[in-house]
Amino acid sequence: MKLNVWILVLSVVCAATLTGPATWSEVLFYASFDGTRDAQAVGEGKATLIEGGGALTADGFGIRGAALRSGDEVGYLEFSAAGNILPEEGTIEVWLKPEDWSSDDGYYHQYIDVIGEGNIRFQKRADTVNVFWVKAPKVPPPGHFDDKYPGITMRGYACQQIKDKWRQFFLIWRVGEPLRYYRGGPEGKGVHDSSNPAEPPAPPPGKLTAIRIGDFGGAEGRQAHTLIDEVYIYDRALTFEEAWWANVHAKDRQPGTDIPTTFAEPTAKVVPDPANKTLVVEIDSGDRSGDFAGQAHLK
Ligand SMILES: [Ca+2]
């Protein structure tokens, strides 16, 4: 009886955490590359073909359906930034698979480059390091990921791109806060947080004009190709738990839609722990903004 009371009380507390104002909004931009290089977008999302504009793979060669094949002599895609990305805050979610190279190939690979007055960029450096940065207008590009000066925040991460392996990346920025960087694999087992909370806060990048997606920026002599699929740009900085959900459901979510508001329902269950002669009440508040979950032990 006492146990039931506890469950009831805890459940009420958990439900109460979900009654705040909803902040969910929408996906600003989505490209599946399933039969088209155009994107589904709220802004001016049509692809502008640059240098050939990439090619579409056969259906089934993407992480889901077909993918964009980009790289040397194939080109990349350019989309308008108008309405498709917000400079102040957002998340870019993208799957990448090196077709014919691995991280130690000695070349730059520029995958996402949002250009304008400032810059939001995700690339692999020649020295195998992945870099994600947000740069203010009129600030020079960094020469190394360890460079620290006003107007730019960035982070270098051990690049784990391996030939023929899909990897998912979440590039998350909010002006005034450190960048966040999560990555996951095709097994759908969630994401790893490779962020560094000690990084300087992201500067305002100013007006952004174009979103470039592909594999470009390599030096002369590079012969590299990369498959790209399921590109989402959100109007907000995703939480770790939202990114986790997006990885787990990469292949079965409704295409182009936001993470469901119900993805984190509150739960409470009682689990016997005979070894310790204890009942454990496992609580998950469902609050994915603060990551509250815990256990209450009743003896
Ligand atoms: Ca696809």
Description of the molecule:
Helices cover 8% and strands 38% of the residues. A hairpin with an 8-residue loop joins strand 1 and strand 2. The model is unreliable at 1-24 (pLDDT under 50). It has helices at residues 2-16, 240-248, and strands spanning 27-31, 40-41, 47-50, 55-56, 68-71, 76-80, 89-98, 109-116, 119-124, 129-135, 152-158, 167-174, 180-184, 191-193, 208-216, 225-234, 267-273, 278-284, 293-298. It starts with a helix and ends with a strand. Strands 1, 2, 4, 5, 7, 12, 13, 14 and 16 form a nine-stranded antiparallel β-sheet that branches. Strands 3-6-15-8-9-10-11 form a seven-stranded antiparallel β-sheet, with no helix packed on it. The chain folds into two domains: 2-20 and 262-298; 27-248, Sandwich (Jelly Rolls). By secondary structure, the chain is mainly β. The chain is built from two helices and 19 strands. The protein binds calcium ion. Calcium ion (CA) is lined by residues 32-34, 62, 64-67, 229-230.
